[in-house]
Amino acid sequence: xxxxxxxxxxxxxxxxxxxxxxxxxxxxxxxxxxxxxxxxxxxxxxxxxxxxxxxxxxxxxxxxxxxxxxxxxxxxxxxxxxxxxxxxxxxxxxxxxxxxxxxxxxxxxxxxxxxxxxxxxxxxxxxxxxxxxxxxxxxxxxxxxxxxxxxxxxxxxxxxxxxxxxxxxxxxxxxxxxxxxxxxxxxxxxxxxxxxxxxxxxxxxxxxxxxx
Length: 212
Ligand code: AMP
Fold this sequence. Notes:
The protein has 212 residues and is α/β, with parallel strands linked by helices.
């Protein structure tokens, strides 16, 4: 299973990706987590990305595409993966399509979590409060100003990615404002193969058996 989870910051991509990781036993590849690890380890990529990330803007496409290309070539991603936070631009989506084509692979689905943007700010502020109350530290980009910048980047650069996948017939949209379990159930429904898919897969198997 190869999946992409799309949605604005605070939509619950991380939560749903983690659940899908456990369900399908495939790695959750969060470019945000990978970049934060690079910042933490003060690698050359991390040192360059830190200020951009803190401000809520997007790291350059080439940097992120390189990280993802390396990561999906690792053995644990062979059986599949969930991309969380990537692609964030149409350029990244095109680069991903190229990477997968080179490996004779394709995405199974792209799930988009649709959310009410006004409610998002309240959600992200609550997340920050809960983290602090639990003794944790809040991400540098989890404040109202950086959040608005992340939302702007989403509207300008990532919203067109949904249109890109919709045009290819791969996009499945789910209401991300519902309770977590209801969102999970809606994603499961969206991933359930339709009869048309099952019949198509059966015919392909039959044809390859007859011809092979
Ligand atoms: P996230 O944890 O997914 O919200 O990502 C945190 C920050 O990392 C973003 O605001 C960006 O600065 C950077 N980032 C993560 N993924 C990408 C990506 N695919 N393209 C560009 N920048 C990214």
